[in-house]
């Protein structure tokens, strides 16, 4: 994860396309007779950050991601901006969102879009500034603090591990789906397409492993975070879809090469279903990651 703004998470490879920060200071200018004017420092200007984002159906649902930004804009709420390395930049408000649809289908669904968002620093009350997001350790008993901190750290680690498995599976499913689409383009040349089957089977198999690890990892923290059960259920359903894709292709050989084309269609459908299932719980996964990054967990 590259950065998180409130509960909205940005991936470097998937979304980030540009980052521009502007800093400044205000000076009052005082005229002088027969001399150059003097400058008097007044104060620092608000930091302003411009971010260029790219949303593509290959790794997200563009309309959903844009809606999340619009909802944040309309909430008029300051959010903490924290980078994945833990660098806390302060509190910011989203002041502008500009979106450009780059590609749509014949029904008007957005397949790819670019967005420019502008963030301005939010100072709030100078006498009572907003605190950086962190774990509240203001517990009188030091032993209680240590125990609570250790427990929180353990839960955060467990969630981070589970989320990592889910994200790995999402990435693999998307990559394999792209490969399947490429192979489908050459299915009119069965012998050439058949040569890609072993590679496809291997890649499909790599999507099962992280999903199988994710289910018990997610189940382990469901008692603490009930919303995680949705992600666990989605991961379990995705396993079924991915295994069905593997089964559809595993029986293809030279002897039944005529079945390759319909088998590829089944694989594409099953992988698409797996990807859609995981995408539906992406907001939950993002909110968990954001909570860990801003140390709310």
Quick description:
By secondary structure, the protein is an alpha+beta fold. The protein folds into 2 domains: 3-27 and 41-121, Elongation Factor Tu (Ef-tu), domain 3 (Beta Barrel); 142-293, Four Helix Bundle (Hemerythrin (Met), subunit A).
What is the overall pLDDT average? 80
Query: Any idea what the CATH architecture of the largest domain is?
Result: Up-down Bundle
Shape: elongated
Order of helices and strands: EEEEEEHEEEHHHHHH
Structural class: alpha+beta
Low-confidence stretches: 135-152
Q: What's the CATH C level of the largest domain? A: Mainly Alpha
Protein described:
There is one protein chain. The longest helix has 43 residues. This protein is an alpha+beta fold. Helix 2 packs antiparallel against helix 4 and helix 2 packs antiparallel against helix 7. The protein is elongated and about 95 Å long. It has seven helices and nine strands. Helices cover 47% and strands 25% of the residues. The strands form two sheets. The protein has a seven-stranded antiparallel β-sheet with strand order 2-1-7-8-9-6-3. Strands 4-5 form a two-stranded antiparallel ribbon. InterPro entries: Myoviridae_GpU (IPR009734). This is Phage protein U.
